[in-house]
Write a structure and sequence with these properties.
The complex is a heterodimer. Chain A is an alpha/beta fold. Chain A is 28% helix and 16% strand. Chain A has a seven-stranded mixed beta sheet, with helices on one face. In chain A, 50% of the residues are buried. Chain B is of the alpha/beta class. Classes of the chains: A alpha/beta, B alpha/beta. The interface between A and B is large, with 41 and 50 residues.
Chain lengths: 171, 437
């Protein structure tokens, strides 16, 4: 995911409702591993079991309000990365999940129009211009741009490269 | 310039800037900690950014607990425990053993944080430290792993949502009832990205162990932190815990002209015991709406309400009584110290005589994988902070949340019972006489 292009390929939207918490994204019994490949099986395992069986590389997760609420476990976005998910769109995000996703290089877009996306629609994300294209309906939705501070962090490759540069005295 | 909230003051001090809500700052952390679940990922990040030969920003202020799978429930969990031990030994971090207890409890007991400190932990309930007047916030493993290397982390300075409660709380109403009501009123995401500040005479009157409950569950309304402004009670508590002198800084309070996102005002006398119905903490109702709901399993414990004073309330209600037939009760003290006090105070015997199961200190059933997982169709009443679908086991189980007193009263009858129908004691802080080694 690191170095994701600014315009993704179209992929299938898996649509979820409001208040999807981290227990539903990655159930606790899977948290004995930190390996994204192993965690892929955890992704929505109990909440929507067909997800981990049918998701393919390049698919997207679409949530309602407060997506990723609950635990700080980075295993939740990591499970989506492991499952091949190319981005998450939601009406709103819980704070820690949003931050964890950015830290992992998993694109996250906030869009009130996420509700217009139906399960199974083909969508693509235009990260730089902050829009979501729905290839199934032909619609384009606006998303919120990242605040400049966060955009700078993303442009530097994320928190880990930023920290390495800081430790090396390059910042 | 307008005044500042306590959250703005702490982040200003720690970043050496004049920061207000909405600003982005890089701030120096006072404490960083993780545990057996989020630890291994944190260690990977720390070793990656430091190239494998780095040092912790401050080993004495880096702590690692083994509390989520404690004792280990399988080989993978046991391997993670070994990874914790190896990392702590290699880098000199403070490492707690299996059975020592939950991170948010043992670090408070051992005086890791105090008023004005900036605490980050790779666990969402790190907001708990706000009960001491610190700014505590939960972060992911990447954030923590990098911060342990540099001693700094970036923060967006949060707006503050203030909850003011004036007056005296009625018998049978505790901090847990207040926070469940607050969450019910603003919603599961009503405080997202914000600091919750708790104030008013009813909050000032609360002992520290109850203030920790208010702070702990700020995350259940999306809060970045939950803060009770520090006062003499905070100082007395910390001095008794640590045996060291603590100065009260009068500036560690929100200014009278500070700008709040909003202020919610309550009359303490109007509060009833609260119960959050499945499957979201925001589903808080007055207890009388759910009285009579049949319960299969009662759970006393967690970083919210697993302290000695909580357990003592339940034991007082159940002393000489028997757990309702056909139900089970799991009691998990939040720390080894709490366990020891249950032993000394006789509460352990009360529970055993009543037919309850008392387990080693840790996160227990709240983590949903062991020590009392729920099966299909099971209904639980817990002193925990979360009741998401499947939180304590099966996706077909249900969890109700309440105060320890409500759990104790309900355990006598096997159904949700108004705690005001029994005698409900309140306890001041029962502090450590000496610091745990």
């Amino acid at each position: 995911m690191t170095g994701a292009t600014n315009i993704t390929e179209p992929g299938r939207a898996w649509v979820f409702g409001d208040d999807i918490d981290t227990d539903q994204i990655a159930p606790s019994r899977f948290l004995v591993s930190s390996d994204p490949e192993e965690l892929a099986e955890a992704a929505f395992h109990d909440h929507r079991p067909e997800f981990h069986e049918e998701v393919v590389d390049g698919d997207f997760v679409v949530g309602g309000e407060n997506f990723g609420s609950g635990s700080s476990r980075e295993h939740a976005p990591l499970a989506l990365v492991g499952a091949g998910v190319d981005g998450v769109v939601a009406v709103s995000f819980a704070r820690i999940f949003f931050r964890n996703a950015i830290n992992l290089g998993l694109p996250v877009l906030i869009s009130p129009e996420a509700r217009r996306i139906d399960d199974g629609d083909e969508i693509a994300l235009r990260l730089e211009e902050g829009t979501i294209v729905n290839h199934t309906t032909g619609e384009t939705y606006d998303a919120e741009a990242l605040p400049p501070f966060l955009q700078e962090l993303v442009d530097r490759g994320g928190l880990k490269p930023y920290t390495k540069a800081k430790l090396a005295g390059d910042l | 310039m307008t005044g500042k909230t306590l959250a703005e003051k702490i982040l200003s001090r720690k970043s050496n800037t004049d920061a207000y809500a909405g600003d982005y700052v890089e701030a120096a952390i006072d404490v960083g900690f993780t545990h057996d679940v989020t630890g291994p990922l944190t260690f990977d990040v720390f070793e990656e950014v430091t190239g494998g030969d780095g040092e912790l920003f401050d080993p004495g202020r880096t702590a690692i607990t083994i509390d989520h799978h404690a004792p280990a429930d399988g080989v993978q969990a046991a391997n993670n425990h070994n990874r914790v031990r190896e990392f702590a030994a290699e880098y000199g971090a403070v490492q707690y053993a299996v059975g020592d207890g939950i991170c948010h409890q043992v670090l408070v007991e051992d005086g890791f944080a105090g008023p004005g400190d900036l605490v980050i932990g790779a666990d969402s309930h790190t907001t708990t430290f706000g009960g001491l007047g610190a700014f505590g916030t939960g972060v992911g493993s990447t954030d923590l792993g990098t911060a342990l290397a540099t001693g700094e982390l970036w923060f967006r300075v949060p707006e503050t949502l203030r909850f003011e409660v004036e007056g005296d709380l009625p018998d049978g109403v505790y901090a847990k009832d207040l926070i469940l009501r607050f969450i019910g009123d603003v919603g599961f995401d009503g405080c997202t990205y914000m600091a919750a500040e708790y104030a008013g005479s009813a909050v000032t009157d609360l002992p520290v162990h109850e203030r920790l409950v208010l702070a702990n569950m700020a995350i259940e309304m999306g809060g970045k932190a939950g803060i009770v402004p520090p006062d003499q009670r905070t100082v007395d508590y910390l001095e008794a815990q640590t045996g060291e002198r603590v100065d009260l800084d009068p500036d560690l309070a929100s200014d009278p002209d500070a700008a709040y996102y909003d202020v919610h005002r309550y009359d303490a006398a109007a509060f009833s015991p609260q119960v959050s119905k499945p499957s979201n903490p925001e589903n808080a109702v007055d207890v009388d709406e759910v009285v009579g709901t049949e319960i299969d399993q009662f759970f006393v414990g967690t970083c919210t309400n697993g302290r000695y004073e909580d357990i003592r309330v339940v034991a007082d209600i159940m002393e000489g009584e028997t757990l309702a037939p056909g139900t089970r009760m799991v009691v998990v003290p939040a720390s080894a110290d709490v366990y020891d006090r249950m032993l000394q105070g006789g509460e352990l015997k009360t529970f055993v005589d009543a037919g309850a199961i008392v387990q080693a200190a840790g996160c227990g059933p709240c983590f949903g994988t062991h020590q009392g997982a729920l099966g299909d169709g099971d209904v639980a009443l817990a002193t925990a902070n979360r009741n998401f679908p499947g939180r304590e086991g099966s996706m077909d189980s249900e969890v109700y949340l309440s105060s320890p007193a409500t759990v104790g009263a309900s355990a006598l009858y096997g159904e949700i019972t108004d705690p005001r129908t029994v005698e409900t004691p309140r306890y001041d802080d029962v502090v450590l006489e000496e610091v745990a080694a």
